[in-house]
Amino acid sequence: MQKVRQQIEQHKVYPALARKLDMSGTVEVFYVINRQGKLIDAGIAATSGSEILDKAALQAVRAAVFPPIPDDAWRGEAQKQFKTKLVYSLTDD
């Protein structure tokens, strides 16, 4: 599901306030998508310790446009949950 992760990464924004306050961390988000690629649910699986970064990670998931799931993937399941870690690091720029 590399395309799914790429969509989230494309929408990831490092909040200006977090940059100003030298905040960094890793947020693990969970999200549920259906076979058509529609986001059903999203939340924080593991917090970064910063509400600002956690909210930014959730916004990235909610802004992503997911592709439809191929017919041969997750047979018999109408939707599936995934987890992705988003790293916010000031030294990666």
From TrEMBL:
Residues 1-93 form the TonB C-terminal domain. Belongs to the TonB family. Transmembrane segments: none annotated. SUPFAM superfamilies: TolA/TonB C-terminal domain (SSF74653). It comes from the Bacteria. The keyword Cell membrane applies. Keywords: Cell inner membrane, Cell membrane, Membrane, Protein transport, Transmembrane, Transmembrane helix, Transport. The lineage of its organism: Bacteria, Pseudomonadati, Pseudomonadota, Betaproteobacteria, Nitrosomonadales. It is found in: Cell inner membrane. This is TonB domain protein. It is a single-pass membrane protein. GO terms for molecular function: energy transducer activity. PROSITE patterns: TONB_CTD. One of its GO terms (cellular component) is plasma membrane protein complex. The keyword Cell membrane applies. One of its GO terms (biological process) is protein transport.
